[in-house]
Amino acid sequence: MASSFGKVFSITSWGESHGPAVGVVLDGCPAGLELSEADIQADLDKRRVGQSEVTSPRNESDRVQILSGVFNGLTMGTPISMLVWNQDQDSSKYEDIKDKFRPGHADYSYLAKYGVRDHRGGGRSSARETVGRVAAGAVARKLLAREGVKIVGYTAELAGLIAQRVDFDEINRNIVRCPDPEVAPLMVAAVLKAKEENDSLGGIAEIRAVGVPPGLGEPVFDKLDADIAKAMISIGATKGIEFGSGFAMARMQGSQSNDPFVNKGGKVGTVENKAGGILGGISTGEDIVVRLAVKPTSSIAREQNTINTSGEATKIEVKGRHDPTIIVRLVPVAEAMMALVLADHLLRQRLARVTFE
Amino acid sequence: MASSFGKVFSITSWGESHGPAVGVVLDGCPAGLELSEADIQADLDKRRVGQSEVTSPRNESDRVQILSGVFNGLTMGTPISMLVWNQDQDSSKYEDIKDKFRPGHADYSYLAKYGVRDHRGGGRSSARETVGRVAAGAVARKLLAREGVKIVGYTAELAGLIAQRVDFDEINRNIVRCPDPEVAPLMVAAVLKAKEENDSLGGIAEIRAVGVPPGLGEPVFDKLDADIAKAMISIGATKGIEFGSGFAMARMQGSQSNDPFVNKGGKVGTVENKAGGILGGISTGEDIVVRLAVKPTSSIAREQNTINTSGEATKIEVKGRHDPTIIVRLVPVAEAMMALVLADHLLRQRLARVTFE
Amino acid sequence: MASSFGKVFSITSWGESHGPAVGVVLDGCPAGLELSEADIQADLDKRRVGQSEVTSPRNESDRVQILSGVFNGLTMGTPISMLVWNQDQDSSKYEDIKDKFRPGHADYSYLAKYGVRDHRGGGRSSARETVGRVAAGAVARKLLAREGVKIVGYTAELAGLIAQRVDFDEINRNIVRCPDPEVAPLMVAAVLKAKEENDSLGGIAEIRAVGVPPGLGEPVFDKLDADIAKAMISIGATKGIEFGSGFAMARMQGSQSNDPFVNKGGKVGTVENKAGGILGGISTGEDIVVRLAVKPTSSIAREQNTINTSGEATKIEVKGRHDPTIIVRLVPVAEAMMALVLADHLLRQRLARVTFE
Amino acid sequence: MASSFGKVFSITSWGESHGPAVGVVLDGCPAGLELSEADIQADLDKRRVGQSEVTSPRNESDRVQILSGVFNGLTMGTPISMLVWNQDQDSSKYEDIKDKFRPGHADYSYLAKYGVRDHRGGGRSSARETVGRVAAGAVARKLLAREGVKIVGYTAELAGLIAQRVDFDEINRNIVRCPDPEVAPLMVAAVLKAKEENDSLGGIAEIRAVGVPPGLGEPVFDKLDADIAKAMISIGATKGIEFGSGFAMARMQGSQSNDPFVNKGGKVGTVENKAGGILGGISTGEDIVVRLAVKPTSSIAREQNTINTSGEATKIEVKGRHDPTIIVRLVPVAEAMMALVLADHLLRQRLARVTFE
User: Fold this and answer.
1) Interface test with B, best of A26, A273, A279 (most B CBs within 10 A)
2) Residues of D in contact with C301 (CB under 8 A)
3) Residues on chain A touching C347 (C-beta within 8 angstroms)
């Protein structure tokens, strides 16, 4: 059950970095949704390696196959199984570090848990696992689009450089997914410099959901923000999350942090959106806004200190092929997770009242 | 299912602020654990209202009753039902605001969701709901204590005042749960000032788990940090969470954020603990460290702008009895949630290998 | 999780025979349903002990209290906690058999599982646990009634006496819940004879759901019949279940067992209803019909052979207060379980299609 | 979630009869289990079509591929994804009946549920879906074998012919899986006669689990028998289930149905095994014995009455390639389901006590 997520729109992810394939089964997608492989491929291409000089050069075309659940271009209400074959899984580079624990990686913790470990590129702990998330997220997006919900993610901060404005149209025009055309080239330069230095960078990703109807979220544990937090922190490199004003709210007074309700053309709204679109764990109708702390890629081509499985001090150099920053490819994964949570709650909202409207 | 949390050590919470009682059913507690009402009462007393001048004056003794699952002082492996009667639920003060939406509260979002709403003190969205969490958390703590796991929470920051050192013994010596004896009185003064001004304060709570064995956490979705994130963000006032170095890691380079493994007297450890005790979603054996952004109490005794259920602009003054800061009473709730997550994963770890050791 | 049932309309049962109380938390009941304690009491009274000379003389008034989830006579979408205090729990009679295993009972298997055991009246394995099921089932029935679904159970066979016709109005006119007025007095006589002989009787209960819309049930595992089977077999005394023609179908040929579809006044129906209202795990719109094999009450006031916890052969005489047949009080429990399954699937059907109609 | 089964050893099934493939993801298999494709293939071959003259002539080699979760011949604790390509999915024969409802099939109920339907060989409702169950069941069996648990299924009754004795060695020596060498040829003759008459036969399958330790099963809803009932009834053709003496127990008196406990060489046992190895929903250590009512194959090559999607009366002749009796191929599926339930509960038993032994 640990590889399943979502209560009614629910996915089960499987696959390892250097196994034959990775994939996902999506159970609970309603019948009658138009769906094709092309719908999914578009999102997969955004998380693909080798898309630019700021991502890993591993060569994976990541062509998705839909194996079930779709007939004549429509979902059938049955599980949708999607698969991507691994193509460029060269595991030879991992051979000489198979007894060493890579700093920042899950090598030791997996071994401590399972007693065995797949050392080839991290196995299950690899970011390659997120292929299935993105594939399923694409289906969630199609469902959400029917209700006018749109999800947009971008790099809000990288190497200390902060996007000063958010232009949705700009995001896909640059290779770092920065929404600010002036800051984007600076970010690119910073990444290339880190790459040259065999180092890596972290950053802050911001994910917004626009057009979310009020009423989504299920107190007291499956609150919308609680589920989003779980979804986002389950992504490998994410070390923190905040909603709306987030940590800044900890330094406010109630008279500042409270956001008065106002009538916005017949709809209930708030003056600002300090709450990030969620109050009491339920969407308010304002944009949902979350910010994610993304750590630098742990794999760097530098010699580092560590120990081996016998507990002896040693040096390690992680060869393989790595992203100088993971944030560029994390953004589409985070968008997918947001979509999955919202699709789940959009459906669950159908259960909230005796009379469904 | 939205009021249930935990997969194998699992709780179901119920109750509203001004209903007859609040409670919890804990299912999945192993048989043979010594347990008495006194064990639970100690934790409930820490979250109780009226414990000092920095908490709400509502008068609730919060005496817990164990109604099932315990016989002759031992758990029986059957569900443990615990109940606390509401005593001081004066709902008259909410009568004249029952058609207005309190800023920062869930009044509107609950109504948007369910079409109906219990206006008396927030109903289900009240912090009173956390009584059940703390009661169940106390049982989790007893289970964890058998394995040498201890959970400690405290106020790391309040009103911009930051605890400069962490002395576990100090925490319960002052009424703001500050681990720094020099900063504590300043924090108290700040809260009393806010109270006098009919305002409220937020802060940052830090929760540590000490003695956690390596191997807890279940990739890829039930990662230990993902489950902790959900648990913590499900607490009403929490607007953000970070693990270890958290958001600061977003500004590091990989050569800085990576934490080399070292041999600590025969055990695998890391030089520092930037990861906050979790790598790849699995505990490493280092302390688990999380920080929570806690917003100021939304209920303040000042006139605020808002609208009513007809969409008309109006003024609101929230009378009731409120905490000038919620962080003092949130700390034991956050400790309980940490305990619940760890107990669940401690048990789940028994399932990880063919041979249980 | 083992004491929870239902995926979206979900109950958590708690309590032991001789503890302070028994109860249930119902999570997932939609908001806006009219509900009062009287609605629930009516069903509880049908399963109550002491209702006639064919049931146990234990004296329990079984007054239900609703502790949460209902405000102003309406469900609020929040968990509904219901409790019944145990009153007449005289456990002294169990003192001298506390080290012996009662034949037909769960004494040994509970001990084998948990290492500890509540010997007082079976503890958690007692039929008293079903109080919570019936209380929650009453809520399910109210929800189902809105959609025109009605559930009727009765004693189809007892002591080899078979009801020859099914008159719904007759069922509650006799104390054995027999739908045939001519057979009912024969059944009563048989039970009284068994009681006099310090023996007990089994029988076959039949449960029908009328007015169930087509489309309920979720292949491939949460099929409607699969969920009903689990629900019914989870009732203590049930040793078998069959749907429609059931075991008789094993002796037919396909040309006999197939039931042609016909147009019944604009609705799709079948000529007979051999399938018991379910095909492929989904309701067809025909009545759902199940039959349950109910074993004789295991507690009989006769000396029986057994062993004790040391493995020594011994004699046992089960005193306590017992039902000469359990079927009379099992029928309302089985009705409740049917209601719970149908309510769950009625709601889940809202999730089956992109467009909800 | 409707295509997932099992709480900790849990499978998610996917695939349709005439889609590209069918498969399963098994999540929760402990790390360190030896596993190869050959282990799984052996069980798949038992449920395969075309294995003899009493099964469907559809030509499927059913070669399984393990796509994840196994490395160096050992399970890794990560999800095990298994896939079988559909090869001989000729759907042309279904073209002219795509608007008609096949009697005994799920055509109408699927359409009523989802609003759309895959008419090709039943789509998801086809028995082809059980490939994934058998593949996952093979893994469960390997896990159970480590603990000495063995599962054996057979045809206890067919065409009114009843196996008079149970010789485990005989079962795989004849093509109808009959455990009685004298009755087996009679059963074969009966099937061939039905086949010649374009008709089909039902029967009774018996499944036994030998060597099950006492203590498995989780009251009050996840009782071992309740979970087995759900598992078995979720198999397409199963219309009833009974445990131990089952329906016969409904006609006994308590003094007959109670089974005295005895000391069997230091172990607790019962004189007979009327309870079928389960008391109070927990295994007793005696063999688990269930009997399943299996209906005749619904697809028969005869003209039958039915209606079409417009509600008009019509005739239908189901061509395709069908099994004259489904029981032969159902037995391995039922064995797999028994294995899945037992593996799940074997693991869950590790959670039952504070100290795991």
Assistant:
1) A279
2) none
3) 351
Say yes or no to pLDDT of A357 above 70: no
Chain A contact present for C347, CB below 8 A: yes
User: pLDDT tier at A22 (50, 70, 90 boundaries)?
Assistant: very high
pLDDT tens digits, A190-240:
999 999 999 999 999 999 999 999 999 999 999 999 999 999 999 999 999
Q: Does B65 touch chain C (CB under 8 A)?
A: yes
Indicate yes or no: CB of B67 within 8 angstroms of CB of C13.
no
Task: Please give the Cα distance from C341 to C338 (Å, whole number).
Answer: 5
Domains of chain A in sequence order: 4-351 (3.60.150.10)
Count Cβ atoms within 10 A of the Cβ of residue C151 and give its class: 0-12 exposed, 13-18 middle, 19 or more buried.
buried
Pick the closest to residue A187 from A217, A213, A209, A155 (CA basis): A155
D114 touching A (Cβ < 8 Å): yes
| Residue C241 in tokens | 């279940």
Among all chains, which residue has been given the structure tokens 């006031």? C301
DSSP structural state of residue A246: G
Q: How confident is the model at residue C49 (pLDDT cuts 50, 70, 90)?
A: confident
Subunits with at least 3 CB pairs below 8 A relative to chain C?
Answer: A, B, D
Question: One-letter amino acid identity for B149?
Answer: V
What whole-number percentage of chain A has pLDDT above 70?
99
C-alpha distance from B136 to closest chain C C-alpha (Å): 15
Residues 6+ apart with CB under 8 A from D151: D141, D144, D207, D208, D209, D210, D335, D338, D339, D342
Share of chain D above pLDDT 70, in %: 99
Specify the pLDDT at position A216. 98
Q: Which of C339, C340, C329 is nearest to C237 (CA)?
A: C329
- Location of structure tokens 């045939």: C180
- Cα–Cα dist D211/D193, whole Å: 38
Q: Is B258 exposed, middle or buried (0-12, 13-18, 19+ CB in 10 A)?
A: buried
Counting every residue written for chain C, the total comes to: 357
Q: How many helices (H) and strands (E) does chain A have?
A: 7, 18
- Confirm if D261 and D212 have CB atoms less than 8 A apart: no
- CB pair distance less than 8 Å for C355 and A219: no
- Cα torsion C50, C54, C55, C56: sign: positive
Ranges of chain B with pLDDT below 50? none
CB contact D199 to C (< 8 Å): yes
Question: What's the pLDDT at D357?
Answer: 57
Is the minimum CB–CB distance between A161 and chain D shorter than 8 Å?
no
Determine what percent of chain D is predicted with pLDDT higher than 90.
88
Q: What is the pLDDT of residues C144-167, one digit of tens each?
A: 999 999 999 999 999 999 999 999
Count of Cβ atoms closer than 10 Å to residue B275 Cβ: 27
D175-216: pLDDT as tens digits: 999 999 999 999 999 999 999 999 999 999 999 999 999 999
Using a CB-CB cut-off of 8 Å, the residues of chain B touching C117 are: 76
Measure in Å the smallest separation between the Cα of C316 and chain D Cα atoms: 10
Buried (b) or exposed (e) across C333-342, using 16+ Cβ within 10 A? bbbbbbbbbb
Among chain C residues, the shortest Cα distance to A344 is held by: C351
To test the contact with chain A by mutation, choose from C34, C347, C348, C351 the residue with the greatest count of A C-beta atoms within 10 A, namely C351
Of C20, C27, C123, the CB nearest to B4: C27
Instruction: With cut-offs at 50, 70 and 90, classify the pLDDT of residue A20.
Output: very high
Angle of the A224-233 helix axis to the B224-233 helix axis, nearest 10:
160
Collect all residues of chain A within an 8 Å Cβ-Cβ radius of residue B268.
101, 108, 112, 307, 311
Place of tokens 């401690």: B346
CA distance C119 to C110: 10
- Note whether D261 contacts C103, CB cutoff 8 Å: yes
